Amino acid sequence: MADVVNSATGRRIVVAVDESEESTYALRWFLRNLLRAVPAEGSEAGDTLILVYARPSPRVYPAMDGAVYLFDEEVAATMDKHSKDVMEKAQSICEGHGNVKVEVKVCIGDARDVICQVVEKLGADLLVIGSHGYGFIKRSFLGSVSDHCARNAKCPVLIVKREIRIRIGQIESTLKILFLIQILALEEYFLVEVLFMFLSHLVELPLIGMYTFTVSDVVNTEGAQVPAMFVFGDSLVDPGNNNDLLTVAKANYYPNGVDFAIGTTGRYCNGGTVVDHLGNLLGLPLIPPFNSPTTTGSNILRGVNYGSAASGILWDTGLIYGDVFTMDDQIQNLNITLQQLRLLLGNGTADFLARSLFFVGMGANDYINNYLHPLPRKSRKYTPVAFSQLLIQEYRRQLEDLHDLGARKILVAGVPPLGCTPNQIGGSNDSRGECIRSSNTLAVQFNSQVKLLVHQLNTTLPGSSLLFWDTYSLIHNIIDNYLLYGFKYPNKACCGVGRSKGQVMCLPLLPLECRNRSEYIFWDPYHATDALNAIAAKDAYQGTLHLTFPMNVEQLVRS
């Protein structure tokens, strides 16, 4: 693609157009972001856009008497007018973008074949085409023009996807890219990672394994220790909720999920997250993501996972990455689920919620992507103590909101040792690979206040049982004694780029070099491997009071 974009000669760009909004969006996006217009002096170095519209072939229709008929003249005239209207609309869009050379071609036939034939005949340098966003089933039955062209066109293909959901204002893609570049200029490695991930949302990458997480319509929780589990958190528990959000914080590409039974889902892990393993210990099937279209009806009777990568307690945590579900958003999403639950369970809803487990794990991103980040970097405004107090104030309100909605058994996970991630270690000047003390101090301060908050809420919220899970001490102990737990690499990521493989997240175009992934504590620069998640979940489930206060999960669900 770089060769196309950087060519010094005039390019011939074929743009497939039709009457759809997706086609219009693709044309506008290309004009805004990649067009090289013709200079005013008339140089031939600018782009030439060839707008191609594929008109359906005349069809033969059987009549009741056995005869066959073609389109009549009136129908043909209507189709001609429609073709003309489509092309005039596309041309008017181009005219609004300055000095652009435009050619139009209306061809008769199947769009998949027509587009590829025009590309080959004209020797096009690039094909731009919109994506209708069909899921796997629709692609299988209807056929995808973009998929066909990506595999058969004799030139590079740019498949542009529309934003599926934008909740933080209607932000234009170009402005968001420019804003990200301003941020990323502060961190060179971050630039590579975020630009790749952001563009991967807009441009489909053929031949890269992509999976959509689905769950069975049959819910079987017989023998489970709780009727359901509702999960709130960040990328440590996100099962793929960010996949369809306009954000760079998503993991819906290989090698994420390389060891997971259902493949790549959007989890930041080679296998299961800590709540996947905890749910298994409780006898529950996989908890479905809130943002999945199948998370409705009886599927929500096993619970719902609202976790969203890059999110935090504060409303602006994760904003630099685009659209995420903040903790407040996740609580609002629970409200949506409750409306369905009341239809399913009626008067039994309150008892169902009271017996279910609510997992809450927030706070890490409020430090990594907010307090410590160059932008917005609240460390310029707050002292560490003042910032943790701000977080606790908001966290208290959010946990009280969960209680008001019916949560009674709540597991609150503390923040892990932030300074021990490969990202922190790899970004330091210390060649010994030791944890960054200043970052860990922030985590300890926050956790001590969360533990106190849990104790206070247990006395003020009627009928509630909240647990504090000290993930910091657990993971730090595993890192310090990694050989005893069967690990070989305590401070190096299995998948990533840079020092300690901690400066850039996993990228789909790079080979996965670590074969024995169970020997690593960290999967990528920030997140744990399936092996560590399994150990952690078992600790939460049946650990000692040293790490789970005032009891463990097994004792909680039996109470």
From TrEMBL:
Cellular compartments per GO CC: extracellular region
Chief localization: secreted
GO-annotated molecular function: hydrolase activity, acting on ester bonds
Location in the cell: Secreted
A biological process from GO: lipid catabolic process
Record has Lipid metabolism as a keyword: yes
Keyword Hydrolase: yes
Protein name: GDSL esterase lipase
The organism of origin for this protein: Musa troglodytarum (fe'i banana)
